[in-house]
Specification:
4 helices, 13 strands, about 35% strand
Length: about 220
Amino acid sequence: MEDLTLSVDKRVVTGKKVSFLRREGITPLHLYGNGIESQSLQCSTALISRLVNEAGTNIPVNLQVEGESRENICFVREVQYHPVTDRLVHVDFMKVDVTKPVRAEVPVIVEGLSPAVRNMGGTLLQPLQTVTVEALPMDIPGFYTLQAELLIDFDTNFYVRDLEISDSVEIINDVEELLAGVVAPRIESEPEIEGEEGEEGEEGEEGEEGSGERERESEENA
């Protein structure tokens, strides 16, 4: 898989002064990892926002640092947003060794509309949104897809074993783990009114029987 590329500049502004960079449309970055000293970097907020959305945490990024010729194959490891404005404020990248396997979370996407939803009123549930894989950095897939059209009824499900996995990728999840399925609509039962009337009738009979006993006792006393 081809990696994404991002050109970044070295950052000399640190600490509380980085707020000035953010006001100027620049986001502070941090690079650390395999065989390098951690570096403070910066990049256009518009560019880094697009890359974060595209790469997620499982697609490798080639980070090209200003004035350096080395290749930095990295993964996005942490993204920080402002708690109120939801504005991007900081991104961490971790450099990896491309010759050693890494683990990553890969999204699972269910495409289309299931006949069990369209024709039978069911609801599509996907309890597992990602799967954990292990592979060389450049072999990590961007995502897996499943076709909802194959979920023809409430007894048909997708499991981890149904994913198309290449020989260069190892799935860490249990292959029998449920990925997605369609559940039948809930049918609400009506209240049992007849049962309630029957209970009241029994109480009435007991009341009449008790009244008869009191009348017989009165006659004997007389």
